[in-house]
Amino acid sequence: NSVRMFQVRFQPKARTHWHTHSGEQVLIVVEGTCLVKREGHAPVIIKEGEAIAIPANERHWHGAPGDNVGCHLALNNKLKTTWFEEVSSEDYKKAWLEAQ
To answer: How far apart are the first and last CA of the chain?
Structure first.
């Protein structure tokens, strides 16, 4: 198996769409702060040097705060990604408020 690593840099307020991966994904924040919102779970803020594992097939999104950039490494072990709808501005703001 080959592990792929992607560096993803989010500008302020940027975020992914909702999506799933066919296997576990590990995110490691290398700059700033990022938020991960897993469907059915409280949103989690991860800071530089911290990591989070997202279980296989769990709908989620991740992104940066409104006032700063966020950059993470995404470690994927030959994962298939399935993309869904955009995260609304309202849901984005709500997640950040809940995570504070």
So the answer is: 38
β-pairing, 81-83 vs 44-47, is unpaired
Residue with tokens 């993803």: 8
d(CA 10, CA 51): 16
Q: How many residues does the chain have?
A: 100
Q: Which amino acid is at 18?
A: W
Distance of CA 28 to the CA centre of its chain: 10
Region class of 13: left (phi > 0), else alpha (psi between -120 and 50), else beta: left
Q: Residue 95: enclosing H or E segment and its boundaries?
A: helix 89-99
The model's pTM is 0.93
Strand partners, 6: 74
pLDDT in tens, 16-64: 999 999 999 999 999 999 999 999 999 999 999 999 999 999 999 999 9
